[in-house]
Amino acid sequence: MKVRLLDNLNAFLVLAACGTLSEAAQRLSCSPATLSRRMQQLEEDVGLKLFDRVQAGYALTEDGRDVLEQLEPFQCAYAGFEQWLSAKSRKPQVRVSAGSWTMKFLSLHIAALCKPEDEFEVVFITSEDRLNIKKREIDIGLRSSAPAEIGLASKRLPPVEFAPYVAVGADAAAEQRWVGIAPEFATTNSSRWLLEHHGSEMVMQVSSQHTLLDMLCAGAGASILPSFLGDTSPQLRRCGPVIEDLTKHQWVTMHDDRRHLPEVRMMTDRIVQVIEQHRGR
Fold this sequence. Notes:
Number of strands: 12
Low-confidence stretches: none
Strand order of the largest sheet: 4-3-5-12-6
Shape: globular
Order of helices and strands: HHHEEHHEHHEEEEEHEHEHEEH
CATH architecture of the largest domain: 3-Layer(aba) Sandwich
Strand content: 15-25%
Structural class: alpha/beta
Largest sheet: 5 strands, mixed
CATH superfamily of the largest domain: Periplasmic binding protein-like II
Mean pLDDT: 87
Helix content: 40-55%
Oligomer: single chain
CATH class of the largest domain: Alpha Beta
CATH topology of the largest domain: D-Maltodextrin-Binding Protein, domain 2
Distance between the termini: 59 Å
Radius of gyration: 21 Å
């Protein structure tokens, strides 16, 4: 019973972070049906309803949020144990999180970020969500605002500009055919701005930033991209001015205790250097 409860509590934490059965099941290496059954077992064991099953996924109930809060010390301790065990058995890991656009930019400069002689491993996590540094979900987070939490350190990076782009060779009519992120998946400022200002003119909606970029390059229409990505893509051209409402600085954020580790400090320095060298071009 105790073993099952611990396993199911860990599964609860993963599902609470993901919000969908499919993604959580993938992380836990089980089927969605098995994970759903485990959550039913957990609710029976604790005598509380932890999730509301909604169309978009699993939403925490009030009791579920209370349980999540009670498990925070356990989550931090477990993450610390995993990192300690990893350090004992293999190279240290540095976990870096960024949104889809920034991660795409980092991938274009991976040779400057990761070197064969490095004595640590890097885990790149693409997520539009703000992963929890204090709970050690990540070591370095690239974010669109300065951290408000105590115990985090940050450095301000150059501002990010956004502008409209279409495929090279697209005609003037394509500049009025807007392609954007569907409302239920619009989690970024740029995707929400496009819906607010050009939602009625959209001819296509997609569910992810990666698909949006593919559709633009294929000539489906126009959309909003960060200039560090749109201006450097040979398949795209800018078709309008910078959108001042979307221009803002980015921040690289770390845990105050872990930022002095050699591997975390080295990776942070490399990320800052790459961004400062290329963002203005």
